[in-house]
Amino acid sequence: MPEVGETGLTSEQVKHRIAQGEINITKDKSSRSIAQIVRANVFTLFNAIIAVAMVMVLLTGQWRDSVFGFVIIINTGIGIVTELRAKRTLDRLSILVASKYLVRRDGDDVEIAHDEIVRDDLLWIRSGDQIPADVEIVKTWGLELDESMLTGESRTVRKNIGDPAYSGSTAVSGMALGRVTAVGENSYAARLAAEAKIYKKTHSDLNAGINTILKFMTFLVVPLCALLIWTQMNTVGGWDAAISSGAWRQAVVSAVAGVVGMIPEGLVLLTSLNFAVAAMRLARQHTLVQELESVETLARVDALNLDKTGTITDGGIAFDRLEMLGVDAGDGLRRTAEQALYDLANEEQPNGTGRAVLDGLGERGIAASEIAARVPFSSARKWSAVVENDEIWYMGAPEVLISAMRGDHAAILERVNAIAGEGSRVVLLANADAGDAAGDIVPTEFANDPRLLPDAEPVALVVCSERIRPDAERTLAWFREQGVRCRLISGDNPRTVAAIAGKVRLTGDKTPRYMDARELPDDIEALAETLEHVDVLGRVLPDQKKAIVQALHQRGHTVAMTGDGVNDTLALKEADLGIAMGNAAPAAKAVAQVVLVDSKFSHLPDVVARGRQVMANMERVASLFLVKTVYSAIISLGVVLTAMPYPYLPRHITYVGALTIGMPAFILALAPNTRRYIPGFLRRVVAFALPGGIATGLSVLLCAWIVPHVMGWNLGNPADLESLRATSAIILFLMGVFVLSRVASPLNSWRGGLVAFFAACGVIGMFIPFVASFFALIIPAGRTLAATLVALAIASVIFLVCIVVVPKIGRIIPHETKTR
């Protein structure tokens, strides 16, 4: 293989490496694959049970009673289509977030995606870049790397020629040219995102609760199904008689009615559907959700740590004013000072302050003038200088310049501190006569050997301010209203950060309480106590940001962290929810669960509100589904113990379930809801479902036990059994409407209309011949109507009693007993 020179790989060499598979291809983790989506929606335990039950009913020839199976197929199809749409949206959005890299090929520098890099590429490593593949440094211009992703050490490491630099490291300063030595699965890049996610696995209270329900149902359904079949065979004369007479068909259908009722078939589908829809809606607002489960975490957030730069401010600096010093500062001196300031800022590559000065003074018509010599700004010196018209003009950190000057300038330093306390950035403009030193200053010599002259005099203070995002104040106000405690965390001066916090009303009408992070205690417990009384922290180190998150966890808070820099990475990983800006360093985006692609802080309320909507509504919906599970289990158990025919058909539960659970659940799941989620999903759902489930189960069983005796029905007679099942279906429907009313409350809005609409649909359906015939619905008349009305009245009383009594029993039982 020919050696790669400083011109980089040739096109032929790139093609050869691609053919050899030496390309930096990594799996896209932004969403599930199509196969995973189909498998997750189709191959579920309950879908298998439903499919078997459907086949059993079809074998009996009672195809109308197998409609429940087609409903599952439709729901599964909806789930797959919705998730596929969400995947397509998220994948498109993830392309916007993906970073580009600069490589040298054929002697030219070209920008390519990370998965187009091949082995032996000459890769430019620029400040802020996360290294996408392992490299060996060929040339360096002061490159320093943050290797905290690999070693956990937050200290930067300076790299020299010949040193290795591993993927996952991030350039924090300087620049280098490196030769790629390992790509794809052979480098850290392939495992970086996955390892970052594993570092703090997103916990889903919702999924944990639903999985517990599913495990319980697995142990309940199978044995109860066998018992139901055995019982129903006995009700038609035993196995031999049932098989010889063909009555086994009715026995199987009756057993399936019990099994189908116990399965919350739409719950799992609706959960994944809600996560996917939420992610898709957020994507339309340029918010990328990299883990669907993190939508739930959004609902639980009660503590939000905000990075100042890039979140509250947009990272830019605006020139505010030139504050002249001294009493004799007239217009002439101001114009001279403004011209000198413009020339000082007019470097080849001005920093943020310099660009702000150029923009601000340029709008006033000031342009560059001739200078004799220039000393560019240096972070080591903390000042810059120009020589013009036999004068030297300095611009730099006030404390550095004043420390070299003769005289007492304490008043100026006090003024600097006062301005900094207002949240502004201050630099000093000073002037010295080039002839005041031992000899006249030769401009070229001064440029080669720059120094601060002690006879320099302060002329003016240059005041710049960070540009505050226009949406920051109203966004923070929304979080205050929603009970989310926001803290501002920054590496800047705490007084400056506190001043900015005051401008955006971080704490409303109260003055933000600030603290220097260097004074924070090391002990986590003590830190947690301190944080309760602090709103703003300045001079924060990366490992302190992580410790702050850990301390908030100690107090039981669900913590979200925003950030855009490498110094935020550790805290983003430690937080329950990491939120990165779209213009963030690749390292920050790699570990965050949510990326605000257009870097707009104002999207955060939508993000949190969407999570709250999903969780609050899924709690409603899960309660609705679980009520059906509870009453179906109670009815099935009653049927087994009393050896009676099952009191309704599978088609009845399909009709009632569709109108009181299935369709309303889809609407309720997508309704607006901003209630903050509190852990304890399963406990609350069960506590809600038990009263309604017990009431419905008892009502149907009492009807099945008492009404036949009152009416003189012989349940061995198909016509009488049909009447009983029609009456039971009516009771089941009424109780379903009651439960739906309770779930949808308060009913003084559109929710009341929702309940009324589906209740009306159920009643109207009984009067439509085709619907009534298909679902075996009978309108009671005569003595049957009277008995049905009495049964409905008794069912209503039972429902009210259970709603009042069952929760009280739950409160009396000790906690340990309930959890067992």
Can you give a write-up of this model?
It is elongated and about 125 Å long. The protein is an alpha/beta fold. The chain has 30 helices and 21 strands. Helix 4 (67-97) packs parallel to helix 10 (265-284) and helix 26 packs across helix 29. Among the domains are: 11-29 and 100-189, Calcium-transporting ATPase, cytoplasmic transduction domain A, CATH 2.70.150; 286-313 and 470-608, Rossmann fold (3-Layer(aba) Sandwich), CATH 3.40.50.1000; 316-468, Calcium-transporting ATPase, cytoplasmic domain N, CATH 3.40.1110.10. It has an 8-stranded mixed sheet with strand order 8-21-20-19-9-16-18-17, with helices on both faces.
> Under the CATH scheme, which class of the domain at 286-313 and 470-608?
Alpha Beta
CATH topology of the domain at 286-313 and 470-608: Rossmann fold
Task: Provide the CATH superfamily of the domain at 286-313 and 470-608.
Answer: HAD superfamily/HAD-like
* Order of strands, widest sheet: 8-21-20-19-9-16-18-17
Concise synopsis of the structure shown:
The protein is an alpha/beta fold.
Features:
alpha/beta, eight-stranded mixed β-sheet, membrane, translocase, single chain, 820 residues, Rossmann fold, disordered C terminus, Calcium-transporting ATPase, cytoplasmic domain N, 16% strand, transmembrane helix, Calcium-transporting ATPase, cytoplasmic transduction domain A, 30 helices, seven-stranded antiparallel β-sheet, transmembrane
